[in-house]
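[job 4471] stage=fold_predict status=RUNNING
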Amino acid sequence: MSLLSGRWLGGLGTSAFVLAALAVGRVVGDQLPDPFEPLSAPREHAVGVGETAYLREAELTVTGTRLGPLLDDGLSPVPTPGIWLVVDLELTGAGSDSQLRTWEVVAADGTSWAQTRGLTRTCSLVPPGITQRCSVALEVLPAALPGATLRLGTASDLRYDDVAVVELGLTAADVEAAASDAPVATLPLELVGADGQGAP
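[job 4471] inference complete, writing structure tokens
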């Protein structure tokens, strides 16, 4: 098999995987009933864009969102069978090193979409008292965005932990307008010290 054929087949496999993930999504709470679920359920902190959620390990604020049919990853525009949602945020560690480990969109019907590809975030690990400004990107079905919320957490397993539930405020008109927009890009990671000055 030639290198060109291998790359073409690899790209085809990635597209098929992403398309299947977008079409199926994941229904929150689709497992069998768990008698410990009321105790292990994450503690939700409901906020809007521009409001701060005070989690156990971090303070987290979504500062803005952008929609587009292509994601600019710095190399070439990345298409999607759905639509790209880019979320800009600020995260400040509280008491220990912190990192954004969970980010997913939850539609009004409870179906959720999480990360489908690598290299779709610029957020990193930060020590206490340091604020990072960064972005995450998600591929979502356009029809799922009106009325959707965003779940953000500093743990991969959110049981017994805190989670920010952000009301995105997106409408069908927002999604329709973004369908023909230019590519959207994630923000480069920026670190800000406790004194408010940008880190070197």
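[job 4471] summary: Confidence is low (pLDDT under 50) at residues 1-10.
[job 4471] exit 0
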